[in-house]
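Below is how a single chain appears once it has passed through the pipeline. First comes the sequence as given, then the structure the pipeline wrote out for it. We keep one example in the README because the format questions we get most often are answered faster by looking than by reading.
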Amino acid sequence: MNIPADLRYTKDHEWVRLENGVATIGITDYAQGELGDIVFVEMDVAEGDEVEAEAAFGTVEAVKTVSELFAPLAGTVESINEDLEDAPETVNSAPYGDGWMIRITTDDDGSGLMSAEEYAHMIGADS
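Resulting structure:
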């Protein structure tokens, strides 16, 4: 299981990469594995929208289920990965790369999120 050490994590199985006040957010390798083949990704926000921490911002639909996506941090939507509209399976093949979901500008430093080690412990895996 891939749990990059340079990212932060949520209890909802999302990852956050913070760079210069911009948080890139996606779902973890564990989450995509549990969901199975992802067939549709829908964002309920647009560029420029404000998002609150822990508020739903979209959904991921897999063959088995539909799962909501929750913003781990508050901020302003900078961009949405529109490539997922035509290629939702990218979330399965590259959850920490091209499978990212949304980018927000934020003042939050992510200190309230889990480290890779804490996330690995939560899901019962080794980082």
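The chain has a mean pLDDT of 95.

See the next section for the split statistics.
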